[in-house]
Specification:
Strand order of the largest sheet: 1-2-4-3
CATH architecture of one domain: 3-Layer(aba) Sandwich
Oligomer: single chain
Number of helices: 7
Shape: globular
Structural class: alpha+beta
CATH superfamily of one domain: NADH Oxidase
CATH class of one domain: Alpha Beta
Length: about 200
Amino acid sequence: MENQKAMLDCIATRHSTRKFKPELVADELLRQVIEAGRQAPSGKNKQQNHFLVIRKPEVLAELVALVRQEFARMEITEANSDDMGGAIKLSKKGTYVFKYNAPILIVVANKKGYGNNFADTSIAIQNMMLAANALDLGTCWINQLRWLQDNPVILSYLRNLGMADDEIPFGAVSIGYSATADGLPNRQGLPLKGNAVTYID
């Protein structure tokens, strides 16, 4: 019963971190987070998620600059304003840092034509975020590379980092120590304002 409550509390208290300390996460903690992602279920147990764990500051800086460059080339439209509008606007100003300055970014890619690619990567990212919360680490789900998954500049860069030619990114997670006084992520309960539930008995 105690373990069940701890798991439910871990889910209820996980909130996004958008301000990180610059220091890297300890290797053993990072390994546990990655393993939680690797243990996620996948369609037909294919296990074909590819985790690109980026810790090198120069690579992160280059990726931030490329993402900013590619968003700055876009225009805000009625179709994209809800999701990409903010990214485009800040990129045009030259101030956009899509990963919130986290010291680690884990990009999760999967096969281009595979029907469960988004589902498999999403559940892996959720597993990693919950594991990180249990380990006192902050995380934030990152959509921007998925929004640019057909962009040749971004694809080329990720392939140079090791992503296969038949893979594209479906999500990413920023991870690190929260930039709070105690280094812990925000765990204050937040009221649910949506996510309707309908029981059909």
